[in-house]
Amino acid sequence: MIEVYTDGAANGNPGLSGAGIYIKTNGKSYEYSLPLGTLTNHEAEFHAIIKALEICQETFPNEILSFRSDSKAAVDAIEKAFTKNKSFLPLLESIQEKANDFPYFFIKWIPEKQNNHADFLARKAIQQQKT
């Protein structure tokens, strides 16, 4: 099983944003700090999950995925397969489509304090865009 921690951050709302992805599997870890351009914080959270799924498609195809995110908005939308927010709908659909490539995809909400590493990586991605 692949453990994937994701976080999205924005400097302003909307503002420069970034995705942080921290993956743990078989005693190894992988870190990704991806600039996302100008997005809202919630949009960045969804994009972080999408980017993580894309990485898993390339690096860990056909594995069981266990995602963790501190975004209630993203986790609730994915678990319910529904969002009222029209701007989140294409993001949710993209996540559902990519998750279908895996035998099992789980996502769980975790408190921010348990997601420090992904948060650090997301903030680092914002800083990369400021230089």
Short description:
With 131 residues, the chain is an alpha/beta fold. The chain has a single domain (2-130), classed as 2-Layer Sandwich (Nucleotidyltransferase, domain 5), CATH 3.30.420. The chain contains four helices and five strands.
Distance between the termini: 37 Å
Helix content: 40-55%
Q: CATH H level: which superfamily?
A: Ribonuclease H-like superfamily/Ribonuclease H
Number of domains: 1
Q: How many DSSP helices?
A: 4
Class of secondary structure makeup: alpha/beta
Low-confidence runs of at least 5 consecutive residues: none
What is the fold named in CATH at topology level? Nucleotidyltransferase, domain 5
Please give a structural write-up.
The chain is an alpha/beta fold. It has one domain (2-130): 2-Layer Sandwich (Nucleotidyltransferase, domain 5), CATH 3.30.420.10. It has helices at 41-59, 72-80, 89-99, 116-130; strands at 2-12, 15-25, 28-39, 64-69, 104-109. It has a five-stranded mixed beta sheet with strand order 3-2-1-4-5, with helices on both faces. It is globular, with a radius of gyration of 14 Å. The termini are far apart. The model has no long low-confidence stretch (mean pLDDT 97).
